[in-house]
Design goal:
The chain has 20 helices and 23 strands. By secondary structure, the protein is an alpha/beta fold. It has 3 domains: about 240 residues, 3-Layer(aba) Sandwich (Rossmann fold); about 190 residues, no CATH class; about 190 residues, no CATH class. The site of adenosine-5'-triphosphate (ATP) has 12 residues, from strand 2 and helix 1. It is found in: Cell inner membrane.
């Protein structure tokens, strides 16, 4: 049995339902070592026959048997392998891949062999040497003459050392000299023990073969033996040492995709930029959200100690509550400070015994006080007790108040006394007075002369005039008022326990009565954080809409890329690449575009974030753009997912392309 046997090959093309028979029953046998020319008129079906022999066409009747094994045209993988291992394909239009150089074009076929990297490169150089192009390896196809390009195509066809070389009008576009050279190389290939099948309409070209088969009206009509093979050559050649092949490894798809991206860099860089802008906007908004949240927390923590809770006595009497709230907000109060409910020692003890509480500091506060310095009277909306939550760092002069001493507010008292020499107030004696109601509801005046210990600039911005607890107690007692505390500052071990302790305090009951009223700053903080979080998410989502545009850009780019690279798809399929390889090629290019966009977006976000921070730091004293590692990871993930989704349809189109039509593409 001959190495290649075609039996009863019939093929029709259909226009609508009408069949146009092209091949009408071809029988042909060819041995290894033979150079057979199939001579026929233009349009006679030569290319159609070559596509069947080379495993590109699957829709025909008849059988193709190679080395005793009939090809099953329904099995994709078997056909891919057949093209990879058995067939070397040379066409009239060279079919070189324009974004790969000469060496890379040859290596493309070798990538599907099991040779080591070094062996593949060595073999590619040897093949180029054989076709006389050793010194052209680094050139791109567009830098070569037609004859040179065809010789590269021959080198590539021989790369996997296939037993059958199929040449479709290999000299159709060449001048006489180049034609002679190519035919000489084909003769040599046959002499080396391979089978060469060359279709041509040129009688002169056909004369280079051992045997000429005439294709007339869809059938082999006539045979001409020009150079009979020696009898030992017509015997099936002994098993040749072939190069083992493998499906294309994933990394090769990536490398090829990268080379294409590099080749079309100007176009791709615009796509990368467009995609990066969308990703960058999302990243910047997220960073800005983090920064603003951090800034608000920072500001609030500066003003209020998140580990402390201010506790008042709870009153269910409407009037009392009103008074109590008036005491908290001095602007609402009248000129006589309301009577404040006090804490008993047992109540303080109850607070101390709460879980997570590490300290309870009693305090007394009064509203609507007056402070007289010499002949000047100043109003102090609140006179309160200095507690450990008031930061010592807020003292701008002097020290915290000792017994019978006071610290005065810088803006509302000291600087009104003297805009420039306000520090000199320290050490002076002032008279503090306020009116309040005693337990019986009668007005009482509390008054005392105190020495100024320090000047304070409250971080909260509110006016702060404070004495120590003992002095507050002594002043109240002297006026016949209770010396029990009117508020208590509860300290918790860690900020996170703040809210739980606040809830516990508010739920403490004696005889079914709520005892205390506490407010947590962390509740407020959490609420602010939630609002900022929502605002950030909304802004990032709006910016995210541009990601849809980015995805569309990648889809359009990939579709254009698939259309522009149809020929390449055909070439890769003819070399034995599977549909999966083609899909991977386009998917990996999209993934690279996505990855690069994420890199660029990160760079832009960091760069612009740094510039913004530089400007805004002067105003806020805080870095307002904070891009976290999680945002970067998220952006990379997002970019990859978008790119992958965008590549699905175009890559599928590429993978499903009919290799014959793809090869015929311009
Ligand atoms: N996809 C197709 N659909 C319909 N008809 C087709 C198709 N491909 C080829 N044909 C027709 O089949 C016939 C044989 O085409 P084929 O390309 O095999 O001829 P050829 O001998 O290789 O011609 P040439 O030497 O000019 O390349 C032609 O008449 C052509 O118009």
């Amino acid at each position: 049995m001959a190495y290649l046997e075609l039996r009863g090959i019939r093929k029709s093309y259909y226009i609508g339902k009408r069949a146009f028979p092209v091949l009408k029953g071809i029988d042909l046998t060819v041995e290894l070592g033979e150079f057979v020319a199939i001579l026929g008129e233009s349009g006679g079906g030569k290319t159609t026959l070559m596509n069947i022999i080379s495993g590109l066409d699957r829709q025909f009747d008849g059988t193709v048997t190679v080395h005793g094994q009939e090809l099953d045209h329904l099995r994709d993988r078997q056909l891919d392998r057949y093209r990879r291992e058995t067939i070397g394909y040379i066409s009239q239009s060279y079919n070189l891949i324009r974004h790969l150089n000469v060496l890379e074009n040859v290596l493309l076929a070798l990538d599907m062999t099991k040779l080591s990297r070094g062996e593949r490169t060595r073999r590619a150089h040897e093949l180029l040497q054989q076709v006389g192009l050793a010194d052209q390896a680094k050139k791109y196809p567009s830098q070569l003459s037609g004859g040179q390009q065809q010789r590269v195509a021959i080198a590539r066809a021989l790369a996997g050392d296939p037993p059958i070389v199929v040449a479709d009008e290999p000299t159709g576009a060449l001048d006489a000299d180049n034609t002679a050279e190519v035919m000489r190389i084909l003769q040599q290939i046959a002499a080396d023990g391979r089978m060469v099948i060359c279709v041509t309409h040129s009688d002169r070209v056909a004369q280079a073969a051992n045997r000429v088969e005439h294709l007339v009206d869809g059938q082999i009509k006539d045979q001409q033996v020009l150079r009979p093979l020696a009898s030992d050559q017509t015997q099936p050649a002994p098993a040749r040492q072939t190069i083992a092949t493998r499906p294309l490894p994933l990394h090769v798809s990536f490398t090829t995709a990268f080379r294409h991206m590099r080749f079309t860099w100007s176009w791709n860089s615009l796509i990368v930029l467009g995609t990066a802008i969308g990703l960058f906007a999302v990243m910047l908004f997220a960073g800005l959200g983090n920064g603003i949240r951090g800034y608000i927390n920072h500001q609030i923590n500066n003003v209020v100690d998140p580990q402390s809770i201010t506790v008042m006595r709870y009153s269910n009497n409407g009037k009392d509550q009103e008074e109590q709230s008036a005491a908290v907000d001095p602007a609402v109060a009248g000129t006589i400070a309301p009577h404040m409910q006090t804490f008993s020692p047992q109540q303080l003890q109850a607070l101390r015994e709460l879980h997570h509480v590490i300290g309870v500091e009693p305090g007394i506060s009064a509203t609507n006080a007056t402070i007289s310095i010499g002949n000047n009277r100043y109003s102090a909306p609140e006179l309160t007790t200095w507690t450990s939550t008031d930061p010592v760092s807020s003292l701008k002069a002097g020290h915290p108040a000792g017994n019978n001493q006071i610290v005065l507010d810088k803006t509302t008292i000291a600087q009104k006394w003297s805009a420039t020499n306000w520090r000199q107030l320290v050490g002076k004696t002032v008279t503090v007075a306020y009116q309040t109601l005693n337990a019986k509801g009668r007005p009482v005046t509390v008054q005392r002369q105190l020495k100024v210990a320090g000047i304070v600039d409250s971080p909260s911005g509110a006016s702060l005039n404070a004495v120590n607890y003992a002095t507050m107690q002594s002043m109240s007692q002297a006026a016949g008022l209770s010396k029990q505390p009117t508020f208590a500052t509860v300290r918790v071990a860690v900020r996170e326990q703040n809210e739980a302790v606040v809830n516990e305090i508010n739920q403490l009951k004696v005889g079914g009565q709520q005892q205390f009223s506490a407010n947590s700053i962390s509740t407020t903080l959490d609420r602010v954080n939630t609002y900022v979080g929502i605002a950030t998410a909304v802004l990032a989502a709006i910016a995210g809409i541009s990601l849809a545009v980015s995805a569309l850009m990648i889809i359009v780019t990939m579709y254009m890329s698939v259309s522009a690279r149809m020929k390449e798809i055909g070439v890769l399929r003819s070399l034995g690449e599977s549909r999966r390889d083609i899909r991977r090629l386009f998917t990996s290019e999209a993934l690279m575009l996505g990855g690069l966009s994420a890199v660029l977006a990160t760079g832009l976000a960091y760069g612009l974030g740094a510039i913004l921070n530089h400007w805004l730091y002067r105003i806020a004293g805080y870095p307002l753009v904070q891009i976290h590692a999680t945002s970067i990871a998220l952006i990379f993930g997002l970019a990859i997912v978008i790119a992958w989704l965008a590549a699905i349809l175009p890559a599928r189109r590429a993978a499903r392309a009919n290799p014959i039509k793809a090869l015929a593409a311009k």
